[in-house]
Amino acid sequence: MRNSKSRCNSRNEITTASTIDLLNQDLAKQVRTAYDRIEDRGVSACLFGSGGTCCRICNMGPCQVIDGVEQMIGICGATAATVVARNFARIVAAGTAAHTDHAREMVMGFIETAKGKTPHKIQDVEKLHMMAEIFEIEIEGRDKNEIALELGEKALAEFGQQKGTLTMLKRASAKQQAIWKEKGVEPRGIDREVVETMHRTHMGVDQEYHNIMKQAARCSLADGWGSSMLSTELTDIMFGTPVPKRALIDLGVLKADQVNVTVHGHEPLLAESLCMAAEDPEILALVKKVGAKGINLAGVCCTGNEILMRRGIPVAGSFINQEMVLATGAVEAMVVDVQCTMQSLAQVVKNKHTDIITTNYRAKMPDAIHMQFEESDSLGSAKSILAHAIGNYKKRGAYYIPKDKTFDMVVGFSHESINYMLGGSFRESYRPLNDNIINGRIKGVGALVGCEHYKYSDDHHFKVAVELLKNNVLVLATGCAAQALGRRGLMTPEAAAEYCGESLAEVCEVVGMPPVLHVGSCVDNSRLLIALTEMVKQGGLGDDISELPACGTAPLWMSEKAVAIGQYFVTSGAHVIFQNLPVTGSKEMTDFMLGGMKEEYGACWGCEEDPVKLAQKMIKAIDGKRDELGINKKKDRVLFDMEMRRDLDAGTSGQSVPSMGCGNK
Fold first, then answer.
1. How sure is the predictor about 649, in pLDDT bands with cuts at 50, 70 and 90?
2. Is residue 35 assigned to a domain?
3. Domain check: are 421 and 530 in the same one?
């Protein structure tokens, strides 16, 4: 094994300061991490796999296909375009399946809560009524639990639905819905689209790349406008819609004198139950008995984002930090559910007092302890898990918590809170955002979503965001990308003066908001779909998402879920740029993904690895939309009199309005 010094020096450019600090301690010197495994491999990625031209769907292969070489097509005759399309569609299907299984658990938990069979309550009645209206459920004179039960049952039915279309597609603009209908990509049922994608990409079924990608587009919509959106909305109704709050992030949130329990994964049912159990008198008595001052819950990855957004629970680390959180030796238990947990975790703690506790029958791990989380007794399950963790406190040996390694951030920017923040209770709407984009104070909106990656610098997201901000692009972030930006100090109102262009800084100062808004976990990218749709509905910026000055990126995508997310944004009309895509093995597919798809949906994919160049491509795309809208030019500041204000309130739109005190100078 390499010595610690060489390891740390080699990571100075790819890890956070807290990780470098920790790795310099004797305690962590022998911990093997993903960085070591990448270095040990010593080989570049397979070119066939990277280009999407390795076909393994039957046992005549695997076939390694070379585009344009007759002797190197598949044994069955499959061309590079067919193989790449099938592989890409399967990635979309797998990502959609992950979000779908997550969402199904949330819907079923929602139904049990409506029946009064869980300790949780229906908290956001206003959103409940809004969703009931979308699903055409009568609310007049009915109890909230009765309404919730009908909503939950109708939502659950959409997973297995075989005909028709998903209910929440009608939340999109009329033009967007017309495009989907014309192209034949309206999803019929959530599970059906995943199954059909897998069937059509089986050997000898769909063998025309354009037709395969049509199904991939339909499958992605079943995620974004189906399962993910259902999960986000019903989770908000049950646990409360996030509102802005301050919180902390990074390894320093661990406490020396408390029982440290980290929650890792993606499904908030477990995490919310642990939060409730941590306040139970019986659990508090156990804590006191072992001599600890309390239970310190801390999040990791997207479960961390869920309880961060709703409760302000601190985040110890994101995907790339999960091993380091354990390497501190200060964690009594890491409780995991599903998705993005690495098998190496159990090996990191092999000689420590820490237990990895798996809780979902779908996701077990060698050398971990399994304690099944029973939704029918969620509080009892959570108390048992915490009791086990508390029992480890006295076994704690040497540990090291990096000092002064926490960052302050403001989180909790749901669609509703952004709406309120911009207009207040008197004029709650996206009108001020649209106005300031129209008058040029804000150039446009950039979304940073998705994962982190061990092969890229930890400041990759930061570089993208800073380039956008200095060009007056407002940034919204989700998932581990949001946590990466939080660790770099971009999620406080004070950051606007340091990093933003003059006009965006002024808007942030007037509103009192950070220049980067934390919008939630990776499943919460559906919030961005609604935000973009609301911008369209407010008027002045086109008739569908494809006309908005907006662009998204997952600059360090790792998970198949990120590709499903990217595809549902493209299918919804939003241009998206990733660091790479597994399509380069086919010129036809590359041309279609990076250009031809725009003719179908008004948007396409882009690729760029350099973070600054990626941001500049986003800015170019946003400027292009501004040019098409005719708003990319200087306008004189207009002071509205009362009559003009009345006209505005009556529905006049598309004018340059000095909202929030901000007009052109």
1. low
2. no
3. yes
247 CB-side CA count, 13 A:
30
The model's pTM is: 0.92
Q: Are residues 86 and 169 in the same domain?
A: yes
Question: Which two structure tokens, joined as six digits, stand for 22?
Answer: 């920790």
- Number of other CB atoms surrounding residue 61 within 10 Å: 17
Give the per-residue pLDDT at 71: 84
**Which amino acid is residue 631, in one-letter code?**
I
Pairing of strands 54-55, 63-64: antiparallel
**Average pLDDT of the segment spanning 53-76:** 93
Strands 550-554 and 576-578: parallel
Other CB atoms within 10 A of residue 426 CB: 5
Q: Does residue 518 sit within a domain?
A: yes
Q: Looking at 352-482, which runs of residues are DSSP E strands?
A: 355-358, 369-370, 407-411, 444-448, 473-478
Query: How open is the CA angle 555-507-504, to the nearest 5 degrees?
Result: 40
Q: Are residues 226 and 344 in the same domain?
A: no
Alpha-carbon gap, residue 536 to 546, rounded angstroms: 10
What's the confidence (pLDDT) of residue 457? 85
- Label residues 253-279 b or e (16+ Cβ within 10 Å = b): bbbeebbbbbbbbbbbbbbbbbbebbe
Task: Locate 159 and state its tokens.
Answer: 């997973």
Counted domains in the chain: 3
